[in-house]
Amino acid sequence: LKMSWFWLYLPLMATCLCPSIKAATTSSQQSFKTDPYNFYHSLILADGKETTVHLLKDIPKRYYFVLEEGRVLAPFSITVTPCDVPIEWSILVYKSPPGKATPGDHDTQEVSKSQKASSMVSTIFNYKGNSVETYMGMSSHSALYLLEFLSTERDTHVTVYLTTDTTAGHLYPALPADPRIDVIGVGHTTVTLTWKHSPSALQHGESIQYCLLVNEKHNYKSLCAAETAIRSSGMKLPPTLALSLSPYLLEPQQVMILSNSELSIINKVSSGEVRQVCMGTKNTYTVPNLSPSTQYYFDVFIVNLLTNASAAYTGTFARTLEEPEPKVTELKDGKVIHVVLDGKKQKFYSLQYQARHKKIHFTFQLCQGQIRVHITRNGKTVASENLSGLRYFSLKGKLLDTYLVQLRSTEESNSSVKVQASPHFHRPLFPLLPESLKIKSFSKLRTCRSVTIAWLGTQEESKYCVYRKRIEEDQIRRELQSADRCSGPESRHKSEKVLCKYFYDLNPQRAVTTETIKGLQAGTLYLFDVYLFGPSGIPVRYHSKVVKTRKKC
Asked: Where is it located (predicted)?
């Protein structure tokens, strides 16, 4: 560093801290006055290298760097990754004053120079939280930058990456435009996940891999945060969670599984199981051997094998289904049972109901797949057909008649259905349904930025909520086939909600409504869903509709 003004104004920088940590600056200023050379060199931030910064509670820590002198435009970026609790960090900049001070002028001009430079110090960025944040800047002057870090909760550490060479590529793998993890299947002991490919995986597949973390506590915003949390639970971990998965590093409470080129480590900790799975560049994975009726949190990290750097997808969670019911399950008045059928086994699932009234009402709501239902009364068949959407059976018999309901999946994939049995006069669980649950779109009303859809209503006032989701061409089949028609809006992302409205018409022929959804992107596919809510609050989902906006208008 050749800019002598740096030495003159460094004490001034130490007094320009964010308000929450001004009280802790006195000792640092005194240290500088005693030995400014050592103070400067102990806090310089390396360029092009990831630096680990250890923070003590309520004690600020500062690092400096100077943009290269003589460059017309000096771009730079700073990425800070908290590895535990939320922290506060900020960036201050001190631009060089006109002209350069010389070392011999320090004693005679220190006061006037400090007063003149005070107006040239400014805070350009401040953040408080535990998310990974990146600041990108550009400066046309030689400038001194100060980074301040503070943890107010407890001792912790963060990683900091500074680079002034933006042409050399990124240390961290790139995330896709939509970094969410989608849950596309839930079973008693399995959860199937998928996520969009990282651009880095598509360009540098041999040095990139996806690693999945599964736990029962919460999601993690970075790989180092996950490592820190697992270590704090009392167990030792390999230095790098996703990369150092070697047998000789395993602890007694760890189990390693290697199958189909996927490396898994299962850690037994007090808060439950923690699993780490690295699966190369596959972006769909079924997590096996989970516990039934348990909520799990899933995080996917894209890892650069050459640099050990990683980026985190937006985590998700899912609850596995309850334990399978006994072979013959008793149906109780008004109680809803959710049945999941294994398509590969092609076995019947049996439900038994003993009538306490002459008229009995069976309700079936098909959630996923295709199912055939067979109903007998005292051993004689009274109904048998393939289910579609929502189906009612009203049967009349005698008191204490025994009904046996048998369900079977008619396809190889898993299917699921909700079943209810009740007296005929029992308050219906589901709302009154229209003649059709199809959503219609109007091709002539499509524009580059909007789509108009319509659906049928009923004679009773009900609530209808519209949701939209942007999809790709190769996702249409999966979205339509794997959609859980029993799931309500609570399973949807908040950003997908368009509107909710009430309407009805006593004349079924006029019970139709339209809605124009605006703010769309040109030439883009969208998946539209409508949810109908009745008096019980249980939703019925219309058949999803895929519409593409016009490319040119």
From this structure: Secreted
